[in-house]
Amino acid sequence: MPRAIVITGASRGLGRALAVEYAAPGVALALIGRDAAALGAVARLAEAKGARVRIGRIDVRDRDALSAFLVETDEADATDCLIASAGVTMVTPRAGAVEDLTRAQDLFDVNLNGMMNTLAPLAPRMRARRQGQIALFGSIAAFAPPPDSPSYAASKAAIVAFALATRALYHADGVSVSVVCPGFVDTDMTGSFDSAKPFLLSAEDAARRIRRGLARRRAVIAFPRRLYYAARFQQLLPEPLRRRILLAFRATARP
Ligand SMILES: NC(=O)c1ccc[n+]([C@@H]2O[C@H](COP(=O)([O-])OP(=O)(O)OC[C@H]3O[C@@H](n4cnc5c(N)ncnc54)[C@H](OP(=O)(O)O)[C@@H]3O)[C@@H](O)[C@H]2O)c1
């Protein structure tokens, strides 16, 4: 059971649900996000369950501020679980439209550089202690990229590759890296677009599944399994059939 847990994207959605899931007496939580009021509300819930909480109101793109906060947090309570949940999505403005380049680059900045900014200050410290685990957030979209979210799917595929490589690299140092690949979870992110959302899960259910997967030190924590296996299976199909399946997951952004 981890005792010192850092969570990015803790103000809402999966990060928030994970903060509440792990909150218990004897647990130190460091919660990171940009929305101070929302982080405060999560902190109060976690404290009511007996956890000690530090809040970092930080944009994960701000490498220096994030690094300073993470090192300070690690000095206070040696981090044994790092959960990098912060992320954004994007759906094309209308069917067939091309993504806005600036927004796409911003998305990569949060999802990829933000994740690397989170990992960089803590991973060497965890490796030196030869202890701890790290959860990076991919998505089932990495395996079955939805046609209207190419940049999001690409950012998540990059995280899957990064996590699996890092897992192999850190193994000898006793640090376990997992990649979390949810299907559809009922959060603000999933609420920002309309599409088919099979097997939609609550954030609380997803948080329990993630916790179980991390306790077992799984390489890939993908759920629901039916959707994950379907996504992996379609990769083996002939391209015309694969294309038709992916087009069943067309999405439109909600205003
Ligand atoms: N929901 C799903 O169905 C689903 C499926 C597959 C994968 N995922 C992945 O799971 C993770 C969590 O998703 P979610 O559904 O919980 O999303 P969400 O409800 O939209 O919450 C996103 C979280 O990320 C934080 N965040 C976004 N940009 C940030 C930035 N620049 N700096 C710091 N924090 C930032 C937000 O906090 P602030 O707004 O306070 O900054 C918020 O706490 C993401 O990586 C997502 O890609 C989600």
Automatic annotation (TrEMBL):
**Origin superkingdom:** Bacteria
Q: Name one GO molecular function term.
A: oxidoreductase activity
Keyword set includes Oxidoreductase:
yes
Query: One Pfam family for this entry, by name?
Result: adh_short
Q: Which GO terms describe its cellular component?
A: membrane
The UniProt entry, under PROSITE patterns, shows: ADH_SHORT (PS00061)
Q: Which UniProt keywords apply?
A: Oxidoreductase
The UniProt entry's sequence similarity note says: Belongs to the short-chain dehydrogenases/reductases (SDR) family.
Name of the protein in its database record: Short-subunit dehydrogenase
Q: Per the UniProt entry, what species is this protein from, by scientific name?
A: Roseiarcus fermentans
